[in-house]
Amino acid sequence: MALRAILARSSSHPAAPPPSSPTPSPTTVTAIRAASAAKPAPASSPAGGAYALELEVGLDAVRMASTLCEEVQAQLMRQDETADTKDDRSLVTLADYAAQAIIAWRIQQEWPDFTMVGEEDAEALTEGGEGGAQTLEKITALVNKTLAKHKGDAAPTLSSTEIVAAINKGGGKGGKGRHWILDPVDGTLGFVRGDQYAIALALMEDGDLKVGVMGCPNMPKTGEVLEYDSSYTYGFSPSMVTKMLAGESVGWYKGCIFAAVKGRGCTVEPCDARIKAAPTPVTVSDAFDPVSAKFCEPVMKANSSQGFTASVADNLGIASKPLRVYSQVKYGSVARADADVFMKFPKAGYKEKIWDHAAGVIIVEEAGGKVTDAGGAPLDWAGGRYLDTLDRGIVATSAALHERLMDAVSKSWSSSQL
Ligand SMILES: Nc1ncnc2c1ncn2[C@@H]1O[C@H](COP(=O)(O)OS(=O)(=O)O)[C@@H](OP(=O)(O)O)[C@H]1O
Ligand SMILES: [Mg+2]
Ligand SMILES: [Mg+2]
Ligand SMILES: [Mg+2]
Questions:
Q1: Does residue 188 carry a catalytic annotation?
Q2: How far apart are CA 99 and CA 84, in angstroms?
Q3: Is the CB of 326 under 6 A from ligand 1?
Q4: Burial 163-194 (b: 16+ CB within 10 A, else e)
Q5: Which residues are annotated as a binding site?
Q6: What is the pTM of this model?
Q7: Whose CA is nearest to atom 14 of ligand 1?
């Protein structure tokens, strides 16, 4: 792999006061009530049930990875660090490797024989000459620093050999059986631009998603993500940190972790463990009003046909502009009803990867939503590393709106074929 350094876009983010919550949009006329379709949300955290340990480990692992990513994103913004390109010319940073390493290490503590389908591998670090070796050294230091921060005296010091082994745990083939699915930094482009990204972890058993944990370190506590673009990378003010350390409520914060367990609902809580806030149940939008409805999609035209999604939105009567957001934060936005619909229609021939969707999908489903391909079929998690049988694209929405969305997709597809 070529380790060609790319300068992260320079970005100045003026300190801004915490934004206030946006006014909720009214729901009116053509409202489709989805309440009966939505699962009853539990009073607090999904609390795991039979998957309590998996949930606890997943939250711990994703929390550590979030800390590590925040540190690297700040370095990128200061231009103290750079991104590299992989053989497929996509971006990769220290954080992508280090987050995969720390999450795999944490899972291995509980399940030494676990298998994982993860995005990254360590080839560029072991076969990449001096540049690769230097990058591995930085990753090792970053992982150990993060472990020390989170585990204190109990923190081990991992060797670079252990780090390589942990990263390479992501090389699983998937298929039937029990596999963790990991995108250590989803939306790497957003990450290097100081924007939205997600750490997306899921557990799949025989094709069924059982647990999803998604860290979104730049997602605000409330409101739509695009309203906060000037404040993504500013930290907490000194007075907020003082309050947090004293265990006081700070009201607004940025940095959310979504957690979902099959059949037990979905919750959201702060990424930063210093913020004392109980996990809050989230549910998808319970009504559809085209006037106030919003849909989200990838930022890059190369990743999804923006013309096609505009046509589908038009068929649904959605008047507002799309929310173009990096990463699986889009699924989080649908899960907590900031948006009504997420659509992605990649170019023909592009093979979607399971780690780009697994955590987001169980989060939306457990929030009362439905995620399918463009033909209405559920996604096939047991087919290996790719979603090989996917029909055209992926749509996520409330269970109640799904059929209407399918009709809109069919209508747009027919007219685009004419
Ligand atoms: N050509 C093409 N078509 C569709 N999808 C692609 C394509 N190339 C890459 N990818 C995958 O898209 C992941 C990022 O998705 P996003 O929704 O964040 O895209 S965007 O940057 O907002 O446009 C991104 O995930 P990360 O690599 O984790 O960032 C890729 O796996
Ligand atoms: Mg990538
Ligand atoms: Mg991804
Ligand atoms: Mg990624």
A1: yes
A2: 16
A3: yes
A4: bbbbbbbbebebbeeebbbbbbbbbbbbbbbb
A5: 119, 183, 186, 356
A6: 0.89
A7: 187
pLDDT digits (tens, 9 = 90+) for 156-209: 999 999 999 999 999 999 999 999 999 999 999 999 999 999 999 999 999 999
| Tokens matching residue 18 | 């915490």
Give a yes or no: residue 238 inside a domain: yes
Question: Does the beta carbon of 356 sit less than 6 angstroms from any atom of ligand 1?
Answer: yes
Q: Do residue 245 and residue 352 come from a single domain?
A: no
Residue 120 C-alpha to ligand 4 middle, in angstroms?
Answer: 8
Selecting among 188, 283, 309, 397, the annotated active-site residue is 188
325 and 376 both lie in a single domain? yes
Q: Which domain holds residue 389?
A: 295-416
DSSP 76-92: HHTTSS-BEE-TTS-EE
Q: Please indicate, yes or no, whether residues 345 and 214 belong to a single structural domain of this protein.
A: no
Here the ipTM equals 0.99
Pocket test for ligand 1, best of 303, 324, 347 (most atoms within 8 A of CB): 303
Q: What span, in angstroms and rounded, lies between the C-alpha atoms of 385 and 383?
A: 7
Ligand 1 contacts CB of residue 298 (under 6 A): yes
Q: Tens digits of per-residue pLDDT, 46-68? A: 678 999 999 999 999 999 999 99
Last residue of a domain, one of 281, 305, 324: 281
Report whether 17 contacts 230 (CB < 8 A).
Answer: no
Query: Do 156 and 147 meet the contact criterion of CB atoms below 8 Å apart?
Result: yes
Active site residue 233: no
